[in-house]
Design goal:
The complex is a heterodimer.
Chain A lengths: L11 H20 L2 H17 L7 H22 L8 H7 L3 H11 L3 H12 L4 H8 L3 H22 L2
Helix pairs in contact in A: 1-2, 1-3, 2-3, 6-8, 7-8
Chain B lengths: L2 H8 L6 H49 L2 E6 L5 E7 L5 E7 L4 E7 L12 E11 L4 E4 L6 E4 L2 E6 L8 E12 L6 E12 L1
Parallel strand pairs in B: 2-10
Antiparallel strand pairs in B: 1-2, 3-4, 4-8, 5-6, 5-7, 5-9, 7-8, 9-10
The chains are: A mainly alpha, B alpha+beta.
Chain lengths: 162, 196
């Protein structure tokens, strides 16, 4: 039996203030455009607000949100499988500096499963074991994905002449 | 590729204030709709429960007014007979008493209805006579089968040494019989006051 010490935040605004940017960043990198990212964040927050059980601690709460956001992204991704849209305009609007846009564009161009682990590891600062828990894979799978992802990023980076 | 730069660049992806406000509004709307649906479901459940209760109540009220057949079940579950219950409103009982005998007149409200049209003799089965102090003076003394015709039967209660006074006849059941059939116990509640 799990011990629930932390109750979910009941207020919508507070959820957005605490986790809004994290979720938006993750969903945007996963989906490649703002409209879909907003949908995924919205669905994630509604699921969170409807959750009745508490969390073990803040880390558990954050991990739950990331897992849910990832699943929501995957749902949208599946729905739009045949015509996935990476909107460069959205990206440029969010990151006016070309250096930033380029580097994120490279990240967005690698397959979803590698993108997720790279994002969680390098951007959100999670450890391999924590990522393994979030994506429900073994640590060695996460390590492999990190390795492959890095390799892909390097190739694209070099090819693109960034 | 410099992953520190990747982190710095990615961290610049933040929600604008307009987007945040829009999403907050949308989420609140979605939550309100979901809560409303939840309340609707609760109301639906209450209505269904109320409707079922009314139906059950009607059935119970109907059953209270009309008699019904019930199987007599032995300890091992075998059905060994049938009885007819809640016949209170289907039989009228009156008593005529004098110094020599107590005559009980039984009349079916609807003699053509089943089972009242199906038997030809009737007797008191479970009954008692109590005096004005509530003391039982006669308790289910065996009576003889009386002829039952056109929905009417007259039967006599055997008694000896019944003092003058006010009494109440309480009948719990009759036994009805017809040739070739197993006797049928008809249950109900009848109370008739009489004076000797």
């Amino acid at each position: 039996m799990s011990i629930s010490n932390k109750k979910p935040i009941g207020n919508c605004e507070e959820v957005f203030n605490t986790y809004g940017d994290l979720l938006f960043r993750l969903c945007f990198i996963m989906l490649g455009n703002e409209a879909d990212a907003k949908d995924a964040v919205q669905d994630t927050v509604v699921s969170y607000l409807r959750k009745k059980d508490g969390f073990k601690n803040s880390a558990h709460e954050k991990a739950w949100l990331i897992t849910t956001a990832k699943n929501k992204c995957r749902d949208i991704f599946r729905f739009k499988f045949r015509h996935r849209e990476i909107n460069i305009d959205d990206l440029q609007e969010l990151l006016p500096d070309k250096t930033d846009t380029d580097i994120i564009e490279v990240l967005m161009s690698i397959p979803e499963k590698y993108r997720l682990v790279i994002t969680l590891y390098y951007i959100e600062g999670y450890k391999v074991n924590e990522i393994a828990e979030i994506i429900r894979k073994t640590p060695s799978t996460v390590k492999m994905r990190l390795q492959t992802g890095r390799k892909m990023l390097k190739e694209i980076y070099l090819k693109g002449g960034f | 590729m410099d992953y520190e730069n990747l982190k710095i660049s990615a961290r610049k992806i933040v929600m604008s204030d307009e987007t945040k406000e829009e999403l907050i509004k949308n989420c609140e709307k979605m939550m309100a709709v979901k809560n409303m649906n939840k309340q609707k479901n609760i109301v639906k459940r209450i209505i269904v429960t109320a409707a079922v209760s009314v139906c059950l109540g009607c059935t119970a009220a109907g059953a209270a007014y009309h008699g019904f057949f019930k199987d007599i079940i032995r300890y091992d579950g075998t059905v060994v007979g049938t009885k007819y219950e809640q016949a209170t409103n289907e039989i009228k009982v009156s008593v005529m008493a004098d110094a020599e005998k107590i005559t009980v007149v039984v009349e079916a409200v609807d003699p053509s209805a089943f089972p009242y049209a199906a038997f030809d003799s009737l007797k008191l089965n479970d009954y008692k006579i109590v005096d004005s102090n509530g003391k039982t003076v006669i308790d289910s003394l065996p009576t003889e089968m009386s002829d039952y015709a056109d929905g009417k039967a007259e039967m006599t209660v055997p008694y000896q040494n019944l003092d003058n006074g006010d009494y109440t006849l309480i009948i719990k059941s009759f036994t009805a019989a017809s040739k070739g059939d197993q006797p049928l116990v008809i249950s109900g509640e009848w109370e008739i006051a009489f004076t000797v």
